[in-house]
Amino acid sequence: MRNKGLYIVSAILMVILGVSDALRGIFTPLFTSVFGFSMSQVGFIVSASYLGNLICLLFGGMILDRMGRRRAMSLFIIALAISELLLLLGHSYAILLIGFFLALGISTLLNTTINLISDSFSATKSLMLLNALFFLQGIGTSGSQLILSAYSSSVSVWNGTLIAMAVLLVPLAVIVMRLKDEGGGKKEETEAIQTGVQKTELGMIALIALTLGLYLIAEHGITNYIIMYGTEYAGVTAAAAGIALSLYSAGIMVGRLVLGTVVDRIGAEKMLFLSLAAATVISVITFSLSVLPLLLLVGLAISLVYPTTVSLVRKHAPAALGARATTAAVSAASILDVIFNAVFGRAIDTFGYGSSMPVLCVALAISAVLMIFIIPKGRRQH
């Protein structure tokens, strides 16, 4: 393993990103009962977060390519610390809106930056190490939900959490700037991300973005609507539906740690096809029979899809444009996800959960088929 120091920093950062991403949901009672904001205003915060993701990714890609991964990563960490401190003034709705716009946007940008530098961690196990980092992000999210939910209306806990994250982030930014590459210096890191592609393969990048967007539709669709599906259509209690959602999240976390050990040997594209195909079959069974605990297996099947698919983009762009191509692809996938969610709620109102939820299975199936065309030709026959 190369660049152990950078990997350790990335591991700590991913836990913090997991906590940061969860704050909006955990402290909603604080925003409504203490700060006095309406649920409509909270809804605008969610929309602002999505917008922050898109804008930060689009501009962040250019910054990454011009400044270099390390300097840009350090800058983004400082920017995240500032956005967390800005949220201390969250009793002002405008400040809260801007704070989450920046915090969630920069968090997604840092998430993508870590994906981009993952090739410098190992020549043979980069995807395994990358998926382990995403596992740690899940620990940060689920751990903060478990610990902080009991204090979801506490101003002091809200402030303390924000200050603690900012205090941890600043030294991480300094360490990233000071770390030296292990085993060959800057040249080796450059070679680790060198794709050999001389011209941006726009068609392939668009195909990857579409595949990623369809996957996000399915993943977020299950996350956002499974509780209502369980209680309104499947006839289970809210507690049972909540357990199914927890199993789904646990499957994703465990899968990133366990399945990540084989992805480098099988090959990223082939592993993604197998994962998406398995997720399609299991999700069809889950929604056909309304056996919600099977979501554990769906989570396991899809666990590697997001980080591994994002990592594919830079294979189809020159090294100098790798960050821009990656952030643009993730942005395009996110736009597709946002548009779908705007329409999907109306579809449920019109056709009901029984007819609408299988659309998520269709999204997984199409993404699996598209992945066949992304697999390098030499590997399709094996």
Q: Supply the number of helical segments.
A: 18
Global geometry: globular
- Radius of gyration over all CA atoms, rounded: 20 Å
Give me the strand/helix succession. Answer: HHHHHHHHHHHHHHHHHH
Structural class: mainly alpha
Low-confidence stretches: 183-193
User: In total, how many beta strands?
Assistant: 0
Helix proportion: over 70%
| Distance between the amino and carboxyl termini | 29 Å
Amount of beta strand: under 5%
Mean pLDDT score: 90
Notes on the structure:
- Helix content is 81%, strand content 0%.
- The protein has 382 residues and is mainly alpha-helical.
- The protein is globular and about 55 Å long.
Produce a short descriptive summary.
By secondary structure, the chain is an all-alpha fold. It has 18 helices and no strands.
What descriptors fit this protein?
382 residues, mainly alpha, 18 helices, 81% helix, 0% strand, globular
SSE layout and pairings?
Blueprint: H1 4-26, H2 28-34, H3 39-67, H4 69-86, H5 93-117, H6 126-148, H7 155-178, H8 185-193, H9 202-234, H10 238-258, H11 263-266, H12 268-289, H13 295-302, H14 305-312, H15 322-351, H16 353-356, H17 358-374, H18 377-380
Helix pairs in contact: 1-5, 1-6, 1-7, 3-4, 3-5, 3-15, 4-5, 4-7, 5-15, 6-10, 9-10, 9-14, 9-15, 9-17, 10-13, 12-13, 12-14, 12-17
